[in-house]
Specification:
The complex is a heterodimer of chains A (about 280) and B (about 325). Chain A has about 280 residues and is mostly helical. Chain A is built from 10 helices and no strands. Chain B has a 6-stranded mixed beta sheet with strand order 5-6-7-3-8-9, with helices on both faces. A 5-stranded antiparallel beta sheet of chain B has the order 11-12-10-13-14, with helices on one face. In chain B, strands 2-1-4 form a 3-stranded antiparallel beta sheet, with helices on one face. The chains are: A mainly alpha (about 280), B alpha/beta (about 325). Chain A: This is ABC-type transport system permease.
Chain lengths: ~280, ~325
């Protein structure tokens, strides 16, 4: 074996060792990040469960929505409001929950954390802003996901959802819910970071969320809106949620659903990254 | 009293060099330089709005200096390993519906190698019953113990405490003092702000007086008291108004209001002489005391030099060390 070969062997061994060390460090870093996210998520879940009013409205808000719009306001096949099959409005009902609950919940949490100086404390711990937001998105995905299941159950009980969607359709709807909730958690966090108080968060959440719910091809088909509003409709992330869920539930429209899911993911990544960056961690 | 293991030979845990913080035209912190060493307790005192919390924010990295630099263990405070430091912000309020144990456990979960939750609860003096109680149902003092516990959970080498004993009863305050003492003795560098002069005098190895964002004096409390505290004074409070004829007293003095008299640069012999004089003149008195200057006098003297009308709190040990005769 030549010296060069020996050197080469040593270099290779060193390189392997370095790579293994780096891999080990990465694994350890990931495990520690997961531990921090878990700690934040557990604390947030405990805090949420003990706020009885918040629990009540998180789970019964969707039920109220279905009962009011799906049963009381419904005009049937004669035309007018809610004259289409219930399946058509499923994305709208889900959209209401997916938009409004995270906006107000995460926005208020951000405002509360800033006012109580919790962010100032967290900024000096190993927890990062992205980890904090991920923990809160995970908690909201679980809670609002449950609320969504409850909503579908109520709609199935009082309305007509038609044939059960396929397994693939179900999985797609779940994917839309997860991505949509995470997206609007990001938007809620952004509102919480920019508003100056919890009251401001609620006002801003309503100002952003309610028009979005009405315009995003949900209860009112985009074709019935003035042409001037179409670009606005196309710019709203909820539009892709509503259209994608509708396509997934209808079946046979997989490319459309996947395309909408991809666009929704794009919105989610952009908003999540922006809102994590703007969290009031430091001044 | 202070007297921890810190020495100039130990490494500085935190160093600020000509740090300035400006918001528009308002200068919140003005060219402050300081260093705090391992095992040292550094107390920041000053009037409301002097810039104490802003300076603390600059040292912890939660605020960015307009000019100057801060190094924590030789690194930028935002880049340093955050397991090595901890902060208890002023008016900090954790999740109100979580118990003390859950809160300490939560903060422990954010660090790679935290102390055990039981050990932290024990150190801050929370028994099992209090630790299981929701934060919102605890007394103010117990709540503050939980917050201090949250700040200790990573066994920090550098600890920032922004008014750690505000709202705590005297016994709880003593517990926190003991805790800070033991941390410093174990090598932890502690930077604390306080409005309680007795607290600063008791805990701090060095004190920095901040007024208008400027660190006007830094030194051990005893040195500051000797240099800027003024003279020992004799205070007399009579039972009847204007009972004492200052021309006839054995010391030069002044009357404050109708009942209070103060005689400056007095000693123990003067106390005896004054008591003899009061008895001889048959003047009824409520109190005669020899008042040694404290850090509070330093604070009041230096702050008033800079035009501040301060009302400092003497805290629980404000009159410690003073000879007093009451009738």
């Amino acid at each position: 074996m030549t010296a060069a070969e020996t050197g080469g062997t040593d270099e290779t061994a060193a390189a392997v060792e370095t790579r293994e060390t780096a891999d080990g460090g990465q694994t350890r870093g990931f495990a520690e990040a997961a531990r921090r996210v878990r700690a934040e998520a557990v604390a947030e879940t405990r805090a949420f469960i003990r706020r009885r009013t918040a629990v009540f409205f998180t789970f019964f808000f969707p039920v109220f929505i279905v009962l009011i719009f799906g049963v009381l306001v419904k005009t049937g096949a004669t035309g007018g409001l809610f004259s289409r099959p219930d399946t058509y409005y499923l994305p709208a009902y889900l959209g209401v929950v997916v938009v409004l609950t995270p906006l107000s919940r995460v926005g208020s949490t951000v405002a509360r954390n800033r006012a109580s100086r919790r962010f100032e404390k967290l900024a000096t711990t190993p927890l990062s802003r992205l980890e904090w937001l991920s923990a809160h998105a995970a908690v909201n995905v679980a809670l609002i996901g449950l609320a969504g299941v409850l909503l579908v159950g109520v709609l199935a009980a009082v309305g007509d959802l038609g044939a059960a969607p396929s397994l693939g359709g179900d999985a797609l709807v779940v994917a839309f819910l997860v991505v949509g909730i995470a997206l609007f958690c990001g938007l809620g966090s952004l509102i919480g970071s920019l508003a100056d108080s919890e009251d401001g968060v609620i006002a801003a959440s309503n100002a952003v969320g309610i028009p979005m719910v009405l315009l995003a091809d949900t209860f009112v088909p985009a074709s019935r809106l003035p042409a001037a509003l179409r670009p606005v409709v196309d710019a709203l992330p909820l539009t892709y949620f509503a259209r994608g869920v509708r396509a997934a539930v209808a079946g046979g429209q997989l490319p459309t659903a996947l395309s909408d899911l991809a666009i929704l993911c794009g919105f989610a990544v952009a908003l999540f990254a922006l809102s994590a960056r703007l969290l009031p961690w430091r001044e | 009293m202070s007297g921890h293991t810190a020495a100039e030979s130990t490494r500085p845990a935190v160093t600020a060099t000509a740090v300035r913080k400006q918001y528009g035209d308002t200068v919140a912190v003005r060219d402050v330089s300081l260093d705090v060493h391992e095992g040292e307790v550094f107390g920041l005192i000053g009037p409301n709005g002097a810039g104490k919390s802003t300076l603390l924010g600059l040292l912890t990295g939660t605020r960015i200096p307009t000019e100057g630099s801060v190094r924590v263990f030789g690194e930028s405070p935002t880049a340093v390993d955050r397991s090595r430091m901890s902060v208890l912000p002023q008016e900090f309020s954790p999740h109100r519906r979580l118990s003390g144990r859950e809160l300490v456990s939560y903060y422990a979960g954010l660090y790679p190698d935290p102390l055990s939750v039981d050990e932290v609860l024990d150190r801050v003096g929370l028994d099992a019953g209090d630790a299981a109680t929701a934060y919102t149902d605890l007394s103010g003092g117990q709540q503050r113990r939980v917050c201090v516990g949250a700040a200790l959970v990573n066994d920090p080498e550098l600890l920032f405490l922004d008014e750690p004993t505000t709202g705590i009863d005297p016994a709880g305050r003593r517990d926190v003092w003991d805790l800070v003492d033991s941390l410093a003795d174990g090598g932890t560098a502690v930077v604390l702000t306080t409005h309680y002069m007795a607290e600063a005098e008791h805990l701090a190895d060095r004190v920095g007086l901040l007024t208008d964002g400027e660190l006007v004096r830094v030194g051990p409390p005893r040195d500051l008291v000797q240099r800027f505290g003024g003279e020992t004074r004799l205070a007399v409070r009579t039972e009847r108004p204007r009972a004492l004829d200052l021309d006839a007293t054995p010391l030069d003095g002044r009357r404050y209001g109708d009942y209070e008299y103060r005689f400056f640069d007095a000693g123990p012999d003067d106390l005896t002489a004054m008591l003899d004089h009061l008895d001889a003149a048959d003047i009824a008195y409520e109190e005669v005391s020899l008042v040694r200057p404290t850090l509070e006098d330093v604070y009041l003297n230096l702050a008033s030099e800079r035009g501040h009308d301060c009302i400092a709190s003497a805290g629980p040990a404000g009159l410690a060390g003073n000879a007093e005769v009451t009738r």
